[in-house]
């Protein structure tokens, strides 16, 4: 014999009921079918009854909906030839319901007893209709009145089952009757004095479990609208998947913390009888579903699932008068129990100075009031403080039988949350060690679930969410490279890069699911207007895990806002040199914020574009070496300019060409004035461990006008045009000596300078082609022969690939 329970959505209408019928008919065995009320019907009955008892005549409209839904189901399921008798039975039951509702309306009253009778109509009607549908298909089917088999006390709303009596009645009934299909209403029972009672939330699961246990069946199938118990709520965690097998204890823990597929009450009767439970999807009957089993599972999964409950209030009772005093917790929890307030989480530090616990937000005010009344005396003498209440909390819990036999699980859980800036307000781990729970802010719940799911179920694929500012030469190429390389990264490096937002100086485009190429290209046409601070606000509002800002601008305001990103645990990858070359204080603060908030701060492209210069210094310094001297050509654009300026083209045209090729800064004056090289040298010195400010570097400008900065490109070109003589003289002087012009950055014996130099043929800088950079590091270990790094030091493609490498460094660190 089989037993199948169908939930509300499975029997919501005639079409769905037909699916249930097909599933039952596929069983080829005598089958007990337990049904819930038509989907949403119990809630509708409840609001209708409440409206009636408040003398609100609109209850009649609800009643009409109740009537229509049931009559529609009959008309669609029963052939016209048989409809009359079925319809008249349903109408008779509906009339009874209408009379009861009228009674509530006239009396303005709704007792718990009346509620149970009214609510029972949902399952009584659905079971009658389903059984008649089977009969209409020629099945040997009977409808059982559950009240005849399941006996309870008179606690209306959540009646307590008399198992001894119910088991006997169930066993007798099934011994004495021989049908192919038995249809029973779930949720409904009867007291010993023959009053209708109901079994509370999840009552239909409970009914099925009681019957399965009484008959010692080997399994119970719960058919619902999802394909089983998921590793996490699939509406919140996209990567969640169905758990194929789970132990009863794990399922109980998960269902306690919000996995609504299964009510713990359904587990209670079948657990001691070693009956397996299957959760299956009525709408995808072929999918395997979840098996909840008493057998020990031999897989090595440590965490089986993650769950959460929202709308939690965290309450703390604390004070010196609690230490070493017996009975405080008894009084605290007794007063809550008296008020029927359910405590969902408790934790107490060994100092005994405080007890922290959680209730649903709905109960919080009542709990606060009764606790403060209970401890009025202690509060008035300052021994205990008035209970504190923090609303807007969630509980997240990881669940698994094997947590107890593995070290480091809680470490992994809390470091994953911490890395993503999720503040943990309280922690609890029961003695069973099957569950580790944390109370966090509700606004962080979605992120926490995804972070934990990634840590425990998707270890192989790490998701990095990119927020890109600046889509010019470098930014544009970076986006192109990311979109092109996505598949490779996912397959080969197990990194899932998602481009969530892009921005230029005035607009931004955001898609929390990831921007497509088309969306990115529509930034200018369709992007939303962006004011200062909007981008950061958007990132923090989305609150996605592993968020990284990629700054491809040359903008100072953006650079000076990095600290706010880091404080929100948002990593930063930047090719913008302004931050690291601003004050030493800001540079250092960014480094320490990066550590404090576990948010990476990477800027390899600040010097030498894609060349691994900063990383090399970091490794030298970390391994105990000391940088003693630096000789370098650090400007790709200036190297290009002085290579290309050979007397053929005027200087200004060569500069324009460098700009066109994407080698210069957005404002080429920053290159020509030596500012860009100075910034780079400053960064190299700071990375080498030297305390240097901008003013400590001597820049000898090769521009004749010296003084004022030129921010307008046109103005710069006009000035350069008029100074052609000056540049041609510089060139001639070098040519006369067989030398080449190079802008050299040097650091020697504590002195740092930047200037245009004539480089002779024997010098390693002489043969420096095109836009190349070169750096020579003299260190304790590389004293005679310097460590040399050379290669393309400018250009959008190479710079973008340097930024990309930093992003991958972050992803690898997370993996
Ligand atoms: N070119 C190279 O070889 C190298 C460049 N770099 C660095 O790369 C950075 C970018 O250079 P490049 O791509 O050539 O410059 P571009 O001028 O081509 O692009 C700059 C981008 O930044 C945007 N932007 C400017 N201000 C803001 C702001 N406040 N908020 C958001 N976006 C803003 C611009 O938007 P809009 O179009 O609206 O102005 C534009 O999309 C510079 O910092 C440079 O030093 C580093 C190493 C090498
Ligand atoms: N403008 C810069 C580009 C890289 O930082 C340069 O010329 O090197």
End-to-end Cα distance: 49 Å
For the report, how would you describe the main beta sheet?
Answer: 8 strands, mixed
Strand content: 15-25%
Biggest sheet strand line-up: 3-5-2-1-8-10-11-9
- Which molecules are bound besides the chains? NADPH dihydro-nicotinamide-adenine-dinucleotide phosphate, the ligand N[C@@H](CC=O)C(=O)O
Counted by DSSP, the helix tally is: 30
Silhouette: elongated
The helicity comes to 40-55%
Write the layout of secondary structure elements.
Blueprint (H helix, E strand, L loop, with lengths): L1 E5 L7 H12 L5 E5 L5 H13 L5 H19 L2 H28 L4 H25 L4 E3 L2 H4 L1 E2 L10 H14 L4 E5 L2 E4 L4 E3 L4 H12 L4 E6 L20 E3 H9 L7 H7 L5 E6 L8 E4 L11 E14 L9 H11 L6 E4 L5 E7 H14 L1 H5 L7 E12 L9 H11 L4 E6 L5 E7 L3 H13 L4 E8 L3 H21 L1 E9 L3 E4 L6 H5 L1 H4 L1 E2 L4 H9 L4 E5 L4 H4 L2 H6 L3 E4 L9 H13 L4 E2 L10 H10 L4 E7 L2 H9 L6 H10 L8 H4 L2 H13 L9 E4 L12 H10 L1 H13 L3 E9 L2 E9 L12 E8 L7 E6 L3 H19 L1
Parallel strand pairs: 1-2, 1-8, 2-5, 3-5, 4-6, 8-10, 9-11, 18-19, 18-22, 22-23, 23-24, 26-28
Antiparallel strand pairs: 6-7, 10-11, 12-14, 12-15, 13-14, 15-17, 16-17, 19-20, 20-21, 25-27, 25-29, 27-28, 29-30
Helix pairs in contact: 1-3, 2-3, 2-4, 2-5, 3-4, 3-5, 4-5, 7-8, 8-10, 11-12, 14-15, 16-30, 24-25, 25-28
The chain binds NADPH dihydro-nicotinamide-adenine-dinucleotide phosphate and the ligand N[C@@H](CC=O)C(=O)O.
The site of NADPH dihydro-nicotinamide-adenine-dinucleotide phosphate has 31 residues, from helix 16, helix 20 and helix 30.
């Amino acid at each position: 014999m089989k037993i199948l329970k169908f939930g509300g959505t499975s029997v919501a209408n005639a079409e769905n009921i037909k699916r249930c019928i097909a599933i039952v008919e596929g069983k080829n065995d005598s089958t007990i079918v337990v049904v819930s009320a038509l989907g949403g019907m119990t809630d509708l009955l409840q609001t209708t009854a409440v409206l009636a008892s408040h003398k609100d005549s609109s209850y009649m409209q609800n009643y009409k909906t109740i009537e229509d839904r049931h009559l529609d189901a009959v008309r669609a399921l029963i052939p016209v030839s048989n409809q009359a008798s079925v319809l008249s039975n349903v109408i008779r039951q509906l009339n009874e319901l209408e009379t009861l509702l009228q009674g509530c309306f006239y009396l303005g009253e709704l007792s718990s007893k009346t509620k149970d009778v009214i609510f029972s109509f949902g399952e009584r009607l659905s079971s009658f209709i389903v059984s008649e549908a089977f009969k209409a298909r020629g099945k040997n089917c009977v409808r059982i009145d559950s009240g005849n088999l399941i006996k309870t006390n008179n606690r209306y709303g959540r009646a307590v089952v008399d198992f001894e009596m119910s088991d006997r009645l169930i066993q007798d009934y099934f011994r004495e009757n021989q049908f192919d299909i038995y249809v029973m209403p779930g949720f409904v029972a009867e007291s010993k004095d023959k009053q209708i009672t109901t079994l509370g939330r999840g009552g239909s699961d409970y009914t099925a479990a009681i019957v399965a246990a009484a008959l010692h069946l080997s399994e119970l199938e719960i058919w619902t609208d999802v394909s089983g118990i998921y590793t996490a709520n699939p509406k919140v965690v996209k990567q969640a998947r169905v758990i194929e097998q789970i132990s009863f204890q794990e399922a109980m823990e998960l269902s306690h913390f919000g996995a609504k597929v299964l009510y713990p009450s359904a587990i209670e009767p079948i657990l001691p009888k070693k009956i397996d439970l299957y959760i299956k999807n009525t709408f995808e009957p072929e999918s395997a579903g979840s098996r909840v089993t008493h057998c020990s599972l031999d897989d090595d999964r440590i965490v089986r699932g993650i769950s959460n409950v929202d709308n939690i209030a965290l309450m703390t009772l604390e004070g010196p008068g609690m230490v070493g005093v017996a009975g405080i917790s008894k009084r605290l929890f007794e007063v809550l129990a008296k008020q029927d307030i359910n405590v969902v989480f408790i934790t107490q530090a060994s100092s005994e100075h405080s007890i922290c616990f959680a209730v649903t937000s709905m109960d919080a005010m009542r709990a606060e009031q009764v606790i403060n009344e209970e401890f009025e005396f202690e509060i008035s003498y300052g021994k205990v403080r008035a209970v504190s209440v923090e609303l807007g909390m969630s509980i997240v819990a990881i669940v698994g039988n094997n947590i107890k036999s593995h070290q480091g699980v809680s470490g992994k859980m809390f470091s994953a949350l911490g890395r993503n800036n999720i503040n943990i307000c309280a922690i609890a781990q029961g003695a069973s060690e099957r569950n580790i729970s944390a109370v966090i802010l509700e606004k962080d719940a979605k992120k926490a679930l995804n972070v934990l799911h990634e840590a425990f179920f998707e270890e192989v694929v790490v998701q990095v969410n990119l927020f890109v500012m600046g889509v010019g030469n470098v930014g544009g190429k970076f986006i192109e490279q990311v979109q092109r390389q996505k598949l490779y990264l996912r397959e080969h490096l197990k990194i899932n890069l998602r481009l969530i937002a892009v921005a230029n100086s005035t607009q931004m485009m955001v898609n929390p699911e990831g921007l497509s190429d088309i969306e990115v290209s529509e930034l200018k046409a369709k992007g939303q207007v962006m004011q200062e601070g909007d981008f950061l606000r958007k990132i923090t509002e989305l609150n996605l895990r592993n968020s990284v800002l990629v700054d491809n601008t040359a903008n100072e305001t953006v650079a000076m806002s990095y600290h706010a990103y880091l404080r929100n645990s948002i990593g930063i990858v930047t090719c913008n040199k302004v931050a690291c070359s601003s004050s030493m204080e800001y540079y250092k603060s960014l480094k320490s914020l990066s550590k404090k908030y576990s948010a990476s701060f990477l800027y390899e492209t600040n010097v030498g574009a894609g060349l691994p210069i900063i990383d090399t210094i970091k490794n030298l310094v970390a391994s105990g070496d000391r940088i003693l001297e630096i000789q370098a050509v650090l400007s790709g654009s200036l190297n290009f300019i002085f290579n290309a300026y050979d007397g053929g083209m005027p200087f200004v045209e060569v500069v324009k060409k460098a700009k066109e090729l994407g080698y210069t800064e957005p404002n080429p004056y920053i290159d020509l004035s030596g500012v860009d090289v100075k910034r780079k040298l400053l960064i190299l010195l700071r990375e080498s461990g030297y305390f240097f400010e901008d003013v400590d570097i001597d820049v000898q400008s090769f521009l004749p006008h010296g003084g004022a900065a030129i921010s307008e490109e046109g103005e710069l070109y006009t000035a350069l045009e008029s100074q052609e003589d000056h540049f041609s003289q510089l060139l001639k002087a070098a040519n006369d000596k067989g030398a080449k012009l190079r802008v050299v950055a040097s650091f020697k014996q504590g002195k740092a300078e930047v200037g245009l130099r004539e480089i002779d043929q024997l010098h390693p800088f002489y043969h420096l082609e095109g836009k190349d950079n070169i750096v020579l590091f003299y260190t304790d270990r590389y004293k005679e022969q310097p460590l040399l790094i050379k290669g393309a030091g400018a250009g959008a493609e190479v710079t973008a690939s340097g930024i990309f490498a930093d992003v991958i460094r972050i992803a690898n660190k997370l993996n």
